[in-house]
Amino acid sequence: MLDQVTQITSGAGFIAALDQSGGSTPKALGLYGVDASAYGSEEEMFAEVQRMRERIILAPDFDNNKVIGAILFERTMDETIGGKPVAHYLWEDTGVVPFLKIDKGLGDEANGVQLMKEMPELEATLAKAKAAGIFGTKERSFIKSANRAGIVKVVSQHFEIAQMVIAAGLVPIIEPEVDIHAPDKAEAEDMLWAALFAELALLPKGQQVMLKLTIPENAGQYDELADHPAVMRVVALSGGYSTDEATARLSRNSKMIASFSRALTQGLQRDMSDSEFDTALAANIDKIYKASA
Fold it and tell me: Active-site residue numbers?
């Protein structure tokens, strides 16, 4: 655990987001070259995306030289690579710290935001995650406009869940994503900054969270958050930006590291040879690593 804390707190590299869920999997598979006609059920769909994840994890460049952590979808805890549960394989064979996506998707929009849906089985999920060797969790909401009341509510919900995660012995990644297309994105980020600081001030001494935030319009926006004693690390989501744009924006924020999904898998295709796939993934990893460094 101490080695994992050290790696996540100060390790050079980024956190790979491999947590495509039921809602995002069809799009991710489509970009990977797997049409919906290739699978006839949800089980077959998840099997396809698991094969994609496994191919990424087994690639030569996917190790802790550049990738310090990876976020997994809940079903992935029951999958294996090389006969080992995926979380154990990640840490023991690649040196990559495993995290788990715990949210169940988004509710309807209100006050310019989408809160997380209820998580009635969260305590059981957290207990299972701890037993499975998971280090931390990730929970995502969505901010569509600069509505102060909505943003305060989003952040409050995140910290309520974070308390449950910490009590279970895990480290929470709080992800209040700001829509990259919001016309008032910079104003929303100012409001988010203030709401996060207010909640961090209420955390008991010694407790820490991680923050996963949209790359801000104003470079250095979240530097003070990164320096806060209650924040283990601030990571950035790509939010729909291309790999080139996401890495260019990230490079202007020296106290954030990447936690990309679409930017990580951009250009990867199922029909590529292993050599072609590994070369394309290595190029993405290197680009994201350099922007994070």
Answer: 175, 212
